[in-house]
């Protein structure tokens, strides 16, 4: 089956880069890397410790435009009339406060507690179970595992008699936004005596510890003590009282410790700070688990230290002016070096660190440029004042009717309430009597425009690509703290200040310029004697939208205001904000004019791309990417990518997959899913904007009519920007569709899907993020593994339906992220699964055939591992035709230009780049060969196979079976029918390796003959080709190859084999060849071959003769004769004559018909002499051996006059016999020649001529008588 096996990252050998889908994915990956860099740099904001330079600072920016307000008063929720009337008629003191966690304000009236919903002034609730005057009220987190999940908070009520605890249950309203929640107070048995202590503050930790401040001490309510028979034991533990203080006199006991005024808890760092009435601060460490209380440091000289720090100031400061009103924790989001802020009664801010020499120590950075201490905070070890910040001046705070006529640099009066978190400070200050005791609210926040400009100035400095992080870090290090200030007159006396969403305390984005319009802005609550007033902290995007609303979208009429805005925040940031306004309001019909105006701003104020200076090849904070030819993109381009990055940032690094299946993990995935869908909705709005403005991003070319008026240089710059935008647009689409895919996986049960992954992929997918899915090869591979695992999961659960669920979803929702090839592959997997589950043969056949069609469509998408798996599945299904066709299609996709074939035709040069394609094709071909070998094995086993395995019609009956030989022929025929030349060559080689040449002889393809001519060993090639032609009755060609095979001098064939090939050539040349029968060349070839055969036989006898003689020289000659064929002249001169092989000399003279009687006489005489020598060595009669020799030579040479002239031979032999007449019987010569085949009448003529001519050789009487006697014997034979 197709399992989700581990796949290596795609390479050019596994994924074709020539298709449009692959090009789009490459573009998407490159754009994804840009997005990743921008997200990383955009989330960096300088540590507060880096911004606070020197001992003091007081930089405040002035607002130029009347439309810019960082803090805006929204509305006031007045105290319910009935409650207000009661408060006005009170004769005793009451206490008031805010509980923003539950959207309630509270007031104590004697022993009664009243709470109301300040969001709408309703839901007035009274609690009057106490019989003592309530002093203080606080809301804290419960300890874990003590209360049920429905208890969200504990309400702490204090009197001078006891501390009691109410459990708070919250029932969400229909709007699920917290504005209509129902609050229920539940009485508990938790209570502790207070021993007449008046508490003024209740603070809780995230772990559920409860600390109280009263009578100058810090107490902890311990309600975890073990229960007894009499009920739960609770106690108030005095944490700031020394153990021995109870034994001291009262005077000394009161002076052992300074009185505690208030406390602040840092839940992130597990630190508790105590502010004393003498403006001293003490530090306590709560331990790594938050369950300790260890004193660490105390600083009692803060006032003097602050005064000394300000000694360079022109203002005349004294220590009393630095009396601390409140202390506030600085979150890790804002600083890792500054930990505490103290606000003085005059509005100064004192910054502290609880690490010794923190600002002088360079903290190491991790890979993302964040201090390592952010991950593992160090325990506190000191408390040092590091910086003093001056309060804003009247000029910096803006002008208001209540402030007219003030000439002082700072607002007189004392701060009586303050709130600080994540860069925003709200302080209530009562002005002196000269100002009629008015209370004003001083609000400060970071000046993001100043920060953006400082960063942009450093961003354009020349930088190399590998120094982008360094450039950004240096830019951050050069920025300073600049704030804006707003002063608003309060409606009444301020009792408390809080933030509307306390759950985000310490977790807010410091750089609010990165926040979206869709995110709720920060809202602050100011409790006065009139009610609760809401203030909204406006972000830059809020200011821009309000400016568009105020100007009614008339950009040109108010161009000055918009120019100032773009100048203040920079073109890139402003363009990003324009997109935020456009996309964030698409569904609001009432804001259509605002949307149009924002679009106009974007396109008109966004600028144009320019040519970059040669000295600035790359790099800036906001990703002002440069083209390959030095293009600096426009503000529109960079604003788009910046906004895009901010939209996708919340889910970019989100790890959706996990190895846990518990309830909390499922809840976490539900939150992930909601976050993914939210981001998808925002991305879809951006896509709608892009689709509505196609000219902005559609990939352009030089032929585009929009660019006809541009010069060549500017034309290239414009095209570069649009191509970059088009790549980003593709990534935008991929992001939307990838989120749809993740949403589908979550709905389909991720835990079950992950179980279908192989082990390695299962481990890797735990850390898989959206950015990896989009911008890394490994992420793409894991994404495909997940799809296959999902298919397998559904395939295992559904027998007849559901196989196309996954591909249908991908086709409908992810058609771009998963291109046509991807979807085709997944549909192929689904059909393969359907085939495995099919019960009917026709259904299995149809599914297999359909899967093959789909897999072939996706051939450029397949990895080698997947290709192997599919082929294995096909083999198990006895669908070997698929095992042949799919790898061949894959080979064509990975090498469409036939580079592998060119490499082979170039004779495999070393170091050639085409080797890569050749090897890729060979790996595909090997899968085909494996299938052919498997089929051959099946045939040898003689197993009947399903007819559908042959790839037959889908209408085949399930029971129909086919002969294995027929099945083998079908599969081999499929392989041989392909037109892949290189495959055919590889296939023929495979036939050779498997000793299947007899089967190959039956093959008829246009590639067979060229292969055996060019790419096979010469002997093997010719050996195959002559058989190939003879099988097809092309005897002439067969004879030619046999002749060439025999006559090649260096083919290594022995002489006997050469002679055998020549003989076969003669046979083939003698056969009738229909194509050659009318031509003379057949006859000429036959004659030539017959002559070659004759000569070859001489050579063979020469070789055998020399081999039989022995001796190194003869053996060398024999080896030479065995190595190649020689012509008749070489045989005569180099061998027969040289080695004195008399018989073959005579035979050569016969063949060549050379008439040299003198030399011939010498040869025959040498024959007699050689015979005598051999007979003597063998101790036998020379005449017997001579007769045998004459008979042998006669058989071979007679009647050739050139080699066997009878008259010459008779004359030589008779003279030899005459000399040995006593040893030779009568008629010896006649009988010998007669036996050699010479007719008697021919001998009679020879003898008669010899006697009648009276040759000089027979001149003596004895000789004549001897000759007459021989003639007489001859005549007797003739009778």
Task: Explain what you see.
This protein has 43 helices and 34 strands. The strands form 9 sheets. A 5-stranded mixed β-sheet has the order 1-23-22-21-20, with helices on one face. Strands 2-27-26-25-24 form a 5-stranded mixed β-sheet. Helix 1 (20-42) packs across helix 13. It starts with 19 loop residues before the first helix and ends with a helix.
Q: Helix segment count? A: 43
Identify the overall geometry: rod-shaped
Strand content: 15-25%
Q: What is the rounded distance between the termini?
A: 100 Å
Average pLDDT reading: 84
Radius of gyration: 54 Å
The largest pleated sheet is described as: 5 strands, mixed
What topology, given as strand order, has the largest sheet? 1-23-22-21-20
The beta-strand count equals 34
Percent helix among the residues?
40-55%
**Low-confidence residue ranges:** 4-19, 364-374, 405-409, 457-471, 615-628, 950-961
Structural class: alpha+beta
InterPro entries: Nucleoporin_Nup133/Nup155_C, Nucleoporin_Nup133/Nup155_N, Nucleoporin_Nup155, Nucleoporin_Nup155_C_1, Nucleoporin_Nup155_C_2, Nucleoporin_Nup155_C_3
Domain Nucleoporin Nup133/Nup155-like C-terminal: 634-1273
GO molecular function, one term: structural constituent of nuclear pore
Region (Disordered): 1-33
Task: Describe this structure in a few short sentences.
The chain contains 43 helices and 34 strands. It has 1279 residues and is an alpha+beta fold.
């Amino acid at each position: 089956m197709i399992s989700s096996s581990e796949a290596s990252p795609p390479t050019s050998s596994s994924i074709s880069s020539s298709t449009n889908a692959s090009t789009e994915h490459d573009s998407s990956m490159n754009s994804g890397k840009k997005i990743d860099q921008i997200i990383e740099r955009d989330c960096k904001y300088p540590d507060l410790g880096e911004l606070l330079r020197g001992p003091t600072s007081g930089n405040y920016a002035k607002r130029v435009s009347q439309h810019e307000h960082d803090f805006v008063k929204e509305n006031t929720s007045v105290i319910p009339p009935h409650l207000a009337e009661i408060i006005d008629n009170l004769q005793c003191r009451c206490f008031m406060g805010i509980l923003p966690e539950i959207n309630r304000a509270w007031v104590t009236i004697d022993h009664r507690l009243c709470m109301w919903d300040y969001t709408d002034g309703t839901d007035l609730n009274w609690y009057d179970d106490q019989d003592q005057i309530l002093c203080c009220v606080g809301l804290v987190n419960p300890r874990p595992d003590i209360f049920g999940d429905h208890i969200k908070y504990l309400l702490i009520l204090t009197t001078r008699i006891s501390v009691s605890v109410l459990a708070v249950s919250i029932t969400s309203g229909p709007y699920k936004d917290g504005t209509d929640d129902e609050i229920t107070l539940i009485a508990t048995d938790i209570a502790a005596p207070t021993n007449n202590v008046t508490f003024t503050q209740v603070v809780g930790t995230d772990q559920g510890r409860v600390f109280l401040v009263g009578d100058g001490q810090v107490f902890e309510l311990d309600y975890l003590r073990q229960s007894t028979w009499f009920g739960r034991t609770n106690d108030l533990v005095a944490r700031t009282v020394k153990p021995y203080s109870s034994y001291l006199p009262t005077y000394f006991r009161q002076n052992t410790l300074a009185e505690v005024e208030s406390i602040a808890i840092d839940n992130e760092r597990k630190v508790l700070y105590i502010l004393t009435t003498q403006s001293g601060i003490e530090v306590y460490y709560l331990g790594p688990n938050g369950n300790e209380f260890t004193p660490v440091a105390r600083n009692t000289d803060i006032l003097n230290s602050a005064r000394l720090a300000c000694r360079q100031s022109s203002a005349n400061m004294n220590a009393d002016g630095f009396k601390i009103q409140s202390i506030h924790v600085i979150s890790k989001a804002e600083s890792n070096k500054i930990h505490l802020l103290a606000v003085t009664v005059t509005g100064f801010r004192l910054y502290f660190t609880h690490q010794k020499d923190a600002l002088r120590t360079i903290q190491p950075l991790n890979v993302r440029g964040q201090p390592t201490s952010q991950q593992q905070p160090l325990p506190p070890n000191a408390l040092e004042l590091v910086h003093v910040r001056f309060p804003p001046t009247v000029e910096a705070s803006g002008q208001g009717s209540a402030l007219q006529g003030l000439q002082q640099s700072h607002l007189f009066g004392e701060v009586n309430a303050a709130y600080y978190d994540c860069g925003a400070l709200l302080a209530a200050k009562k002005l002196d009597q000269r100002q009629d005791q008015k209370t004003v609210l001083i609000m400060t926040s970071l000046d993001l425009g100043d920060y953006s400009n400082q960063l942009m100035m450093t961003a354009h400095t020349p930088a190399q690509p590998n120094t982008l992080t360094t450039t950004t870090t240096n830019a951050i290090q050069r920025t300073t703290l600049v704030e804006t200030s707003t002063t608003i007159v309060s409606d009444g006396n301020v009792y408390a200040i809080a933030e509307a969403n306390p759950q985000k305390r310490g977790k807010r984005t410091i750089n609010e310029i990165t926040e979206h319009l869709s995110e709720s802005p920060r809202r602050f609550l100011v409790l006065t004697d009139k009610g609760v007033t809401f203030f909204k902290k406006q972000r830059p995007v809020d200011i821009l939208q309000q400016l568009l609303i105020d100007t009614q979208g008339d950009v040109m009429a108010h161009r000055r205001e918009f120019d100032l805005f773009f100048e203040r925040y920079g073109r890139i940031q402003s363009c990003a904000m324009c997109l935020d306004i456009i996309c964030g309001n698409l569904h609001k019909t009432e804001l259509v004019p605002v949307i149009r105006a924002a679009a106009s701003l974007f396109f008109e104020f966004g600028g144009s791309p320019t040519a970059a200076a040669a000295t600035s090849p790359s790099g800036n904070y906001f990703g002002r990417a440069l083209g390959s030819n030095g293009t600096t993109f426009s503000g529109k381009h960079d604003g788009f990518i910046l906004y895009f990055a901010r939209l996708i940032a919340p889910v970019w690094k989100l790890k959706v997959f996990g190895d846990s299946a518990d309830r909390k993990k499922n809840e976490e995935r539900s939150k992930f899913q909601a976050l993914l869908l939210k981001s998808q909705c925002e991305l879809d709005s951006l896509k709608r904007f892009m689709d509505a403005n196609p000219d902005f991003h559609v990939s352009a070319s030089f032929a585009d009519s929009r660019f006809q008026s541009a010069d060549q240089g500017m034309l290239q710059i414009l095209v570069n920007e649009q191509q970059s935008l088009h790549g980003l647009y593709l990534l935008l689409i991929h992001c939307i569709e990838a989120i749809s895919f993740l949403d589908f996986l979550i709905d389909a049960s991720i835990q079950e899907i992950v179980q279908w992954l192989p082990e390695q992929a299962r481990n890797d997918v735990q850390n898989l993020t959206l950015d990896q899915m989009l911008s890394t090869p490994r992420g793409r591979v894991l994404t495909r593994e997940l799809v296959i695992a999902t298919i397998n999961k559904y395939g295992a659960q559904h027998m007849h339906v559901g196989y196309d669920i996954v591909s249908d979803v991908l086709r409908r929702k992810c058609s771009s992220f998963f291109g046509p090839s991807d979807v085709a592959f997944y549909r192929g997997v689904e059909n393969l699964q359907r085939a495995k589950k099919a019960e009917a043969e026709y259904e299995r056949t149809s599914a297999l055939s359909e899967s093959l069609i789909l897999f072939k469509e996706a051939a450029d998408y397949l990895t080698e591992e997947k290709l192997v798996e599919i082929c294995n599945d096909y083999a198990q299904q006895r669908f070997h035709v698929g095992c042949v066709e799919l790898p061949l299609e894959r080979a064509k996709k990975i090498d469409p230009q036939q580079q592998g074939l060119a490499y082979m035709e170039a004779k495999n040069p070393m170091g050639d780049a085409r080797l890569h394609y050749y090897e890729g094709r060979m790996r595909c071909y090997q899968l085909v060969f494996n299938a052919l070998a498997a089929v051959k094995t099946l045939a040898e086993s003689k197993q009947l196979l399903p007819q559908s395995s042959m790839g037959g019609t889908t209408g085949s009956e399930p029971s129909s079976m086919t002969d294995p030989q027929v099945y083998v022929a079908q599969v081999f025929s499929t392989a041989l029918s392909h037109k892949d030349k290189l495959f055919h060559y590889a296939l023929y080689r495979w036939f050779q390796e498997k000793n299947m040449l007899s089967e190959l002889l039956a093959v008829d393809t246009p590639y067979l003959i060229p292969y055996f001519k060019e790419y096979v060993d010469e002997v093997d090639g010719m050996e195959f080709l002559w058989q190939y032609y003879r099988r097809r009755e092309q005897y002439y060609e067969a004879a030619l190859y046999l002749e060439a095979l025999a006559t090649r001098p260096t083919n290594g064939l022995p002489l006997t084999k050469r002679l055998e090939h020549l003989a076969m050539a003669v046979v083939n040349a003698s056969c009738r060849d229909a194509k050659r029968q009318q031509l003379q060349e057949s006859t000429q070839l036959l004659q030539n071959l017959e002559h070659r055969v004759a000569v070859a036989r001489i050579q063979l006898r020469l070789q055998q003769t020399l081999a039989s003689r022995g001796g190194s020289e003869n053996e060398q000659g024999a080896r030479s004769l065995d190595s190649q064929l020689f012509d008749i002249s070489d045989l005569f001169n180099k061998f027969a004559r040289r080695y004195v092989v008399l018989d073959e000399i005579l035979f050569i003279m016969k063949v060549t018909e050379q008439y040299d009687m003198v030399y011939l006489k010498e040869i025959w005489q040498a024959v007699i002499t050689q015979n005598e020598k051999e007979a003597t060595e063998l101790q036998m009669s020379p005449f017997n051996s001579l007769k045998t020799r004459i008979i042998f030579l006669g058989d071979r040479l007679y009647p050739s006059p050139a080699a066997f002239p009878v008259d010459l031979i008779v004359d030589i032999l008779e003279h030899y016999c005459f000399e040995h007449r006593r040893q030779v019987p009568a008629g010896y010569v006649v009988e010998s020649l007669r036996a050699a085949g010479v007719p008697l009448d021919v001998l009679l003529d020879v003898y008669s001529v010899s006697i009648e001519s009276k040759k000089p050789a027979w001149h003596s009487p004895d000789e004549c008588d001897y000759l007459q006697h021989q003639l007489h014997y001859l005549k007797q034979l003739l009778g």
